[in-house]
């Protein structure tokens, strides 16, 4: 059975806001670092997207966090900016792209997934 972290990434794949992601060709990656570790990337290509389990070599932006923080952010119970400011959610790479992620995947978009 898939972990909750994996389930949320799989649900996220179907929730891309295609209008917000139009004319974007970028790869966003998430690295989960605790007892349920893993790497997932999401390649956005002109309004469509593909989830890549295991990640990619050179993502444009990478979020690094633990599973509890990721689950809370994905379900909309934790504010991503507050988690970033507290150091629980780190960003590597393109900070401007990272700031746009909530527009691509609205907060809480996977809470029912």
UniProtKB/TrEMBL annotation:
<feature type="domain" description="SCP2">
    <location>
        <begin position="16"/>
        <end position="103"/>
    </location>
</feature>
<dbReference type="InterPro" id="IPR036527">
    <property type="entry name" value="SCP2_sterol-bd_dom_sf"/>
</dbReference>
<dbReference type="GO" id="GO:0005829">
    <property type="term" value="C:cytosol"/>
</dbReference>
<dbReference type="InterPro" id="IPR003033">
    <property type="entry name" value="SCP2_sterol-bd_dom"/>
</dbReference>
<protein>
    <submittedName>
        <fullName>SCP-2 sterol transfer family protein</fullName>
    </submittedName>
</protein>
<dbReference type="Pfam" id="PF02036">
    <property type="entry name" value="SCP2"/>
</dbReference>
